[in-house]
Amino acid sequence: MDRIALVGGTQLKGSIPISGAKNSALKLQAASLLTSEPLVLTNMPELADTRFMVELLEQLGVTCFWPKASGRLSMHAEDITSTIAPYDLVRKMRATFNVLGPLLARVGHATVSLPGGCAIGARPVDLHLKAFEAMGADIVIEGGYVKAAALRGLKGAKIVFPFVSVGATEHAMLAATLAKGETVLENAAREPEIGDIAHCLVAMGAKIDGIGTSTLRIQGVDELKGTTWSVIPDRIEAGSYACCVAAAGGEVTLTHVVPETISSLIDVLQRAGVEVEVGPDWVKITRDPAVPIKPVDIDTQPYPGFPTDTQAQVMALMTRANGASIFRENIFENRYMHAPELRRLGADISVRGSEAVVRGVDTLRGAPVMATDLRASVSLIIAGLMAEGETIISRVYHLDRGFERLEAKLSGCGAQIRRLSGSEE
Ligand code: UD1
């Protein structure tokens, strides 16, 4: 298993290009099942998760072509030869579950394993399944698999989500594009990735109104066509590197960003005393490391609120603030698994339920630590950049799921970071 070794104390200088958004790419990959024509995605992030999705699509009969380092994935679901998504693939990554809706909408049936994914709480899929039932599907759960059938096709329905779910909104939207009649999704999530997926579906011939709002109206069409679509830049990756620069100090321009998609993080960084300059598709982060970080409280919320996916990164930054900050995690239970690892570096963090109090300390010291989930692992990089001495992070496969060329991007700005290949955990 690979590990990452980094030595803190170096300021970062230069620029970091931001990759395509993993969370959008994965659902766009699932959208390829909706059409018999090729769907080509550009600005594709090359990640363990997006590779898993290709593996699954290929098992379903989709012809995929993705030359290494091309950033261009072509998917052609001319004939769907299987409608079964096996446990082995779905357990590795929750988003593979999102093939269920497209298969159901195009072929009329699907058998998909219940998902696994990051260990950040229970993460059920009840809202997804209720949406398909409302659209006329028969659903049975048997032996860890969801067996869904709508042999005469899905029907449009009014679906009011009891709370905001990104996955359920996207999944229902994908399926509704080929349902008969109108589907209305109320209390829909408004994350930028959903807008990206919706606009791609429209380019494929779908009829969707209300994109970017909490009510989506989808008029089903008989078929969708292929298109070429550029994946939106990854706001979580951008936010993570912004925190790296804020932590280490220095001056770095993040390029290929949609600045408004990270405005809640920009606001937090500015309140923490970090300088942020915003351009049309770039953001420059500047911090003098001699000036202390000011504490800022964080309350995670659905978009446009502060994202749960950058909570761990800001917590790492706040470990060196000159005061206490309070974190409230409102989206997932059990999403403070990074706290004990940050404590190994000397952080002062106490967690009670969904609340964490972080009291800034003067010094962090490098130590061996373990990545526990995708976003938590990058928080260890951020803390390591501020720590004295060497931090060694094991289980970096969590990082490889969501961050493309992380060591190269950071070392390009002067960070002392390297991958130790194949070493023991
Ligand atoms: C997506 C993102 C993830 C992000 C999250 C919230 C992907 C691949 N992942 O996850 O990075 O952290 O949005 O922004 O896009 N819930 C239910 N029943 C359901 C569905 C969800 O109870 O059927 C709960 C979840 O357990 C969670 C909350 O709803 O507590 C929100 O989850 P959701 O927005 O669905 O997150 P994901 O789509 O899984």
What does this structure look like?
This protein has 425 residues and is an alpha/beta fold. It has a domain at 3-15 and 233-420: Enolpyruvate transferase domain (UDP-n-acetylglucosamine1-carboxyvinyl-transferase, Chain). Helix content is 30%, strand content 25%. The protein is built from 14 helices and 24 strands. The protein has helices at 22-31, 48-59, 87-90, 100-107, 126-134, 166-176, 192-203, 235-248, 263-271, 311-318, 338-344, 374-386, 397-402, 406-411; strands spanning 3-7, 12-17, 38-42, 63-65, 72-76, 84-85, 109-113, 138-142, 145-149, 158-160, 182-186, 207-209, 215-219, 227-230, 250-255, 275-278, 282-287, 298-299, 324-328, 348-352, 355-359, 368-370, 390-394, 416-420. The strands form 6 sheets. The protein has a 4-stranded mixed beta sheet. The chain has a 4-stranded mixed beta sheet with strand order 2-15-17-16, covered by helices on one side. Strand 8 (138-142) and strand 9 (145-149) form a beta hairpin. Helix 1 (22-31) runs parallel beside helix 2 (48-59). The radius of gyration is 21 Å and the shape is elongated. The termini are close together. The structure holds uridine-diphosphate-N-acetylglucosamine (UD1). Uridine-diphosphate-N-acetylglucosamine is lined by residues 23, 26, 94-95, 121-128, 165-168, 307-309, 331-332.
